[in-house]
Amino acid sequence: MKDNVATVLAPVQISDSVLIMYDNDVITDVCAVEDIAMYHKIAIEPIQMGANVYKYGEAIGKARDFIYKGQHVHIHNIGSLMIKK
Amino acid sequence: MKINAYRRPDGKYGIRNKVLILSTVGCANEVARLISSQMKGTIYVPNSKGCGQIGVGAQIMRRALVGLSLNANVYGTIIVGLGCETTQPHEICEEIKKKSDKPVDVVTIQEEGGTLNAIQKGIRLARQMVEAMSGMRREETDMSSIILATNCGGSDATSGISANPALGYCSDILVREGGTVLLGETTEFIGTENILAGRAKDAGVKNVILKIVKDLESEFNKLGIDIQGANPTPGNIEGGLSTLEEKALGGISKGGTSTINEVVRYGEAPTSRGLIVMDTPGYDIESVTGMVSGGAQICVFTTGRGTPTGNPIVPVIKITGNRQTYDNMLDNTDMDMSSIVSGRRSIADCGRDIFQEVVDVCNGRYTKAESYGFSDISIYRNEEIWCSL
Known about the structure:
The complex is a heterodimer of chains A (85) and B (389). Chain A is mostly beta strands and 85 residues long. Chain A contains no helices and 8 strands. In chain A, 0% of the residues lie in helices and 39% in strands. Chain A starts with a strand and ends in a 6-residue tail after the last strand. Chain B is an alpha/beta fold.
């Protein structure tokens, strides 16, 4: 699986252990380093600044900063590959 | 997978058996409606325009009227017109006859001398057609005969992670079975055009995908609308979507992961099988109507907020990943995909359930919208240039 982020299906609080599932299998667990709202994304591995962010097996954007494993991934730290904002 | 369906003279299979009362212009809608209301087994398709149309707008109207009549769920068609409209009823009839040996007849109000005569003739013709139709029996075929329309409407944060990818899994199964899947709503492709183009069968298909998205974007630009800048919306961002690509990927996941074999225009029937892109607008009802005109016999419709929508020619199966919506709009929603969101079931398991539901509905089981008789239909109209704003 190419994805380096996952969607959280419930509100996550800092230091929660988040089980990452793919199909029916738990593939890893990640310790959340900050609070994450429901349906928002968590980094399941460290992402270098400028590297692609993958969800659905496709690049959904580029990291604007170094993103730690367990960090909230959203508009503050990733941006579109198409739009320069 | 075997199913039982109605074999048509052109070799296609319908999963429903209906006589279409098709209005070629708004002025003929009432006569068409009254004919249909008198005759069991018929469906009434009103026309929102059909006259005062020019250029591409007139071409789309003509293509869609012919396409609806050629849909395999239609046994035969009574075309009901006024007589002097842009979409000439006799011309539409001739075009249908050229493409199929299905029964087709015309009634025009001006030729018959008023509405009472037109209604009387229409009912007489419809009765003969319905009687012949009622003798038909379903015959065995398989899912390779099926064209599935996919569409979404009233999306929310659950759509891209549950209902849409689960439908995509079902789409992949149907393509493996030799069937056809239509993926539309071109406005939702913006941001994923390169990904879609990367799945194209060849350079020709790839270029058309890129072209329809580019053309649409330049139309938006002409109107001064920055569609890229406007997406994701503030509501989308609050719901967890970060980029345009992420939002659009959630939408196109309905079509699954197959190779894109062809791109067709609005309402046009594909010549290939497998995954097909149809250039349709974002408005659900117009989008589904285009796919029905392109030959889809069934539609799976994903929603987040819920919708009652149905179509007169094809059954519409509605699915949601939002448990609250499913409970709140239980009388309108066929399937609950929220077990994906709660982590209890996989996208694959739910995708297999959707495929089984499609098979059951192909074999005759009613969807909720179908049992209510909900009949939303609207042919896409562009070029509305007849008055100043």
